[in-house]
Amino acid sequence: MVLIAPSILAADFLHLQQEIKAIEDAGADHIHVDVMDGHFVPNLTMGPVIISSIKKVTKLPIDVHLMITNANCYIDTYIDSGADLLTIHQESSLHLERDIQKIKSLKAKAGVALNPSTHENTLAYVIHEVDLVLVMSVNPGFGGQSFLPKTVEKITAIKNMLERVGNKNCLISVDGGINDKNAQSCINAGASCLVAGSYIFSAHDYQKAIKDLIGG
């Protein structure tokens, strides 16, 4: 089963509650929240106040992706605000295993994200204990970018790594430029979760957009 996590960065924030209800009704599995600090990536987005508000109006798991410097300083804050799954970047963590353990100790699932130019081998010492690997298929910072085809090879490599260590429950999530033209190649390579923002929220029919991503 492939999960769909619409990225609310592309939603209409003037009507955010209605947008969340609409993607719930359309069959979304998670709500993906992109947190950017203007330092780790060249953009500013939302913080814990928005996540707390989302938590009040949905029963879907909230998947928070921290694209911020010193993410370890904010683990408690984002889990307290409602993150069910918290993903930090390998590139922003000096002590990745410690950060993963802290996330888990706070009863959230722990994810690790890799930028396009970061090799999957950097996960070798933590791959056995992560709940999600987020493969960035664009350089993070802005929505609406084009999918980088080399991502497919990285997905397969991560799938093989997980199989070697026996981590059967870890999701492989792909984020960036996902649409009906490239989703199937990601799924075939081993992706089990697709993050899509512009593709879903620019569609006239959210349910059809989600079904088209998973080949339905």
Using brief descriptors, characterize the structure shown.
single chain; 216 residues; alpha/beta; TIM Barrel; eight-stranded parallel beta sheet
Strand content: 15-25%
In CATH, the architecture is Alpha-Beta Barrel
SSE class:
alpha/beta
Mean pLDDT: 96
Low-confidence spans: none
Number of E strands: 8
According to CATH, what is the topology?
A: TIM Barrel
* CATH class category label: Alpha Beta
Strand line-up in the sheet with most strands: 1-8-7-6-5-4-3-2
* Silhouette: globular
**Major β-sheet profile:** 8 strands, parallel
Fold and architecture overview:
- The chain has helices spanning 16-26, 48-55, 75-81, 96-105, 151-165, 183-189, 198-201, 206-213, and strands at 3-6, 31-36, 62-67, 85-89, 109-114, 132-136, 171-175, 193-196.
- The protein is an alpha/beta fold and 216 residues long.
- It has an eight-stranded parallel sheet with strand order 1-8-7-6-5-4-3-2.
- Helix 1 (16-26) packs across helix 8 and helix 2 packs parallel to helix 3.
- The mean pLDDT is 96.
Secondary-structure blueprint of this entry?
Blueprint: E1 3-6, H1 16-26, E2 31-36, H2 48-55, E3 62-67, H3 75-81, E4 85-89, H4 96-105, E5 109-114, E6 132-136, H5 151-165, E7 171-175, H6 183-189, E8 193-196, H7 198-201, H8 206-213
Parallel strand pairs: 1-8, 2-3, 3-4, 4-5, 5-6, 6-7, 7-8
Helix pairs in contact: 1-8, 2-3
Concise description?
This protein is 32% helix and 19% strand.
